[in-house]
Amino acid sequence: MLRYFAVIALLVCAAGLNARAATTASPATAAKTVSVTGATAATAVTPTTAAATQQPADPRVALLKRLPAGAKLADLRPSPVPGIYEFIQGADVSYLTADGKYFFDGNLYDMNTRENLTEDLRAGARLALINAVPESQMLIFSPKNPLYTITVFTDVDCPYCRKLHGEMAELNQLGVRVRYMFYPRTGPNTESWKKAEVVWCSPNRNEALTRAKLGAKLDLTKTCDPTPVAREYALGQSIGVRGTPAIITDKGDYISGYMPARELVQQLKDLQVAER
Asked: What pLDDT score was predicted for residue 47?
């Protein structure tokens, strides 16, 4: 009899334990627990995630307000000097302090290498601007196997431009390929400007340019539309052309004014050596 009651007691105890286990492991209860836990975790993580994805304001935006109209974010970038920004428009390079308080121009040098960092920027900018112009928009005088290529901003009536052009055969013989762009120094709606347009509109542009530079009389009514004169004149201003001939090397170096053919070739050689 005692053994019988002991067995009954054990069965009742086991049933109680199973009932409690079922209550604890109830799917609905478990789901509620997971849901509440998840909500709590999400609430805790969300601010941190938002802070992590928030991008800091670009400091250049505030600096733009202190620069000339038309300046763009792309014109500003950090310079090698901490706290100083480079401001590049065309081939003009200036500098601006990060707080926008001081603006200055001039050349920045690396004192270890003695390299003119500002002129390197100018050269790169000149080259990019010129390379954006297709050669079909230029007048080209080239030998068969050129060693050097120069781009010359020229004025039909400029005496030293005429002197340089008079040495074209020698320049070509020395391996120099000359690409001409128009830069009438007197500006739009002047005789030199019209002459440049007449040359461009001629059946043989190279021959017409040579005749014009020799002083031949041109019929100024024989123009056409469009011509690249206005665009090349504006490009020259962006590059910093102030007089003609203005010579740009194939590395973007600026050679101001005329020099005899052999001296010019020596200058091109020297620049090549310096850039190695």
From this structure: 53
